[in-house]
Amino acid sequence: MLKIITIFGTRPEAIKMAPVVKELNKLADQIDSKVIVTAQHRQMLDQVLELFSIYPEHDLNIMRQGQNLFDITRRALDGLGKILETEKPDLVLVHGDTTTTFAGALAAYYLQISVGHVEAGLRTGNKYSPFPEEMNRHLTGVLADMHFAPTAASAANLTREGVPEEKIFVTGNTVIDALRATVKDGYVFSQNSILSGIAYEQKRVILVTTHRRENLGEPLREVYRGIRQIAENYPDVEVVFPVHMNPAVRGPVQEELGNNPQIHLIEPLDYEPFVNLMNRCCLVLTDSGGMQEEAPSLGKPVLVLRDTTERPEALDAGTVCLIGCDRGKLVDMTANLLDNQNLYYKMANAVNPYGDGLAAERIVQAIKFKYGLTDKPPKKFIPA
Question: Domain UDP-N-acetylglucosamine 2-epimerase: where (predicted)?
Answer without folding.
Answer: 29-368
